Amino acid sequence: MAWRAISFFFKTPAPKLSAARNPSLLAASSSSPFSTSFLKTKLPKSLRKKRKNPEDSPRTKPVQTLPNRLPALESLVARDARFRFLARCRAFLARQPERVLRLDDAGKLHRELGFPRGRKVVRSLQRHPLLFEVYRHADGKMWFGFTALMEGLLEEERRIADAMEADRVGKVRKLLMMSADKRIALSKIHHCRALFGIPEDFRDRALKYPDYFRVVADDDGRRVLELVNWDPHLAVSEIEREFVADEDRAKKAFRFPVKHNRDLDLDADDARKLNLLNTLPLVSPYSDGASLDLWTLEAEKYRVGVVHEFLSLTLEKRASIHHIVEFKEEFSLTKHTYQMLLKQPRTFYLAGTEMNWVVFLKDAYDENGVLIKKDPQVLFNEKLYEYAEMTKMEPGMRI
Hints:
By secondary structure, the chain is mainly alpha-helical. It has helices at about 1-10, 25-30, 70-80, 85-95, 105, 110-115, 120-125, 150-165, 165-180, 185-190, 195, 200-205, 240-245, 245-250, 270-275, 295-315, 320-325, 335-340, 375-390; strands at about 100, 130-135, 140-145, 185, 215, 225, 320, 350, 355-360.
């Protein structure tokens, strides 16, 4: 019986598909009965469209060539990228009424919170278990907020902001004194607040200093911070102080070659002396740079001086190009800032990629890439980063 069933199975023909139900079968029956699978169906390499090398993209191409690269400074740029979520998330969460946020809502805020688009925010939260916690609320939804440790750290940061208020007020006054119209939109100062250690509530704190600041409405309705009084004691740049302390060292910090005729037939030493005449003093960043002829040597010295003073006011003596461009109109900068800074490698170091590069003041760092003078806020940030990389508290550790 079993043998008959098996033989019946092998003798039963496969069901036939009609051409009416399968048009492709009709087309195949009219074509050649021979297989064409041996034919090459791919385009030869000579005719293929060449793909761009990812390393050639401005998004990934390093600013510095390999021989000139300083790994210690490049690592700081990588560190900032690694803690982008921490920096943005804590700032955003601190502005919420209860300092908590629903996960479903957070998933739509990849720009505000700094996590990669298309990924779940919980993956970024899990990288910092000592600072963020996820829990189920009474409404049945998943929420997240700060841990008790993080709440304590934020309170410590608040005390630092109170203690350093006079210093931060001085920084903002100097920024206003450098600006063309002695006024800067409050939104720009708020956007770059972390760069200078300016607290979140500086807009309210500025109202306590009517002798220094005035908040006015611009023509387009923006709130603008305006300088009230000019202080000549503040209108001294960092490079001017360095020039008084060590003139020779300051002269070697910048180089503005003079375009002279080759008929002068200068030897190397005479050419160096001629170029040195046009090195310093830089045009003060507290002068009226907007009145200078845009493409003169004097105007370039002014712009170099402005960037140098701007970086000197920052906490870590470095800034992203996006932060610098934020004040392009106020500081009379041009689109050639990148090329301008590349010509001053003794003072500035450009790190990162061509699309997102960072400018360092080289003299502010030692050979190991460690900031020589650290603001209290910088010390706090370093401690915060240590907690951010830990998965559990070690015995004996305290805030």
